[in-house]
Amino acid sequence: MRFDIVTLFPDCFTSVLNSGLLSKALTKQIAQVNLVNPRDFTTDKHRKVDDEPYGGGVGMLMKPEPIFAAVESLPTLPRREVIFMSPQGQRMNQPLFRELATNYDQLIIICGHYEGVDERVLNLVTREVSLGDFILTGGEIPAMALVNGVTRLLPGTVGKAESLKLESFEEGLLDYPQYTRPAEFRGMKVPNVLLSGNHAQIAKWRLEQQIQRTKLRRPDMYEEWKEGSGE
């Protein structure tokens, strides 16, 4: 998977890309991240990437020319998606990560700043994606989340691929509680069923916990699961 991130602040990604599973995925060439600064594609002596909006208003907008030039400088792989990180886009979730990891070889991610981008930039875009219903100073943090969420689903990134199937959201339910040694800590005990060695009973308990936890913490998600499962 190739990620091309169009950002005014490429240094923001340094620590994230050099840590944990992302770093391993890049080292193993499971994924490739290319950082592109639209400021490098300006043509004026001040390297200006923003300007005042027509019609007035507060703040500045990112100009279209540097963004177009940055995107057009990139190679085009057959299965490519151009994503604009925007609070107006579809909300990030696990099905989206799965779709992108499965169906695409190249994700171009445009990070906005200031009050946004010139509307004409959206002519480049095939999908708008949001981290949530709130406003951040720029698209870099949502872009990091997207790269992380997609990369960890690529074959070879996570050691035990089957563990990905047992996580929250994968089956429409939140994850079940998990414990490790010691069996008792400060009076808090691991449930007896997990110590029993009875795998059928453990699986039953875990599913019950998933349903109960989802119903309590995410009733919206529980209703969707209930409808889909025919419960």
User: Major sheet: size, sense and barrel closure?
Assistant: 5 strands, parallel
User: Any guess at the CATH architecture of the largest domain?
Assistant: 3-Layer(aba) Sandwich
Oligomer: single chain
**Structure annotation, total helices:** 8
Coarse morphology: elongated
Mean pLDDT comes to 93
Walkthrough of the structure:
With 231 residues, this protein is an alpha/beta fold. It has 2 domains: 2-151, SPOUT methyltransferase, trefoil knot domain (Alpha/beta knot, 3-Layer(aba) Sandwich), CATH 3.40.1280.10; 167-229, Orthogonal Bundle (Trp Operon Repressor, Chain A), CATH 1.10.1270.20. It has 8 helices and 9 strands. The protein has a 5-stranded parallel beta sheet. Strands 3-4 form a two-stranded antiparallel sheet. Helix 4 crosses helix 5 (140-151). It is elongated. The relative contact order is 0.14.
Could you name the key traits of this structure?
two-stranded antiparallel ribbon; 2 domains; Trp Operon Repressor, Chain A; alpha/beta; Alpha/beta knot; five-stranded parallel beta sheet; 33% helix; 231 residues; 9 strands; elongated; 17% strand
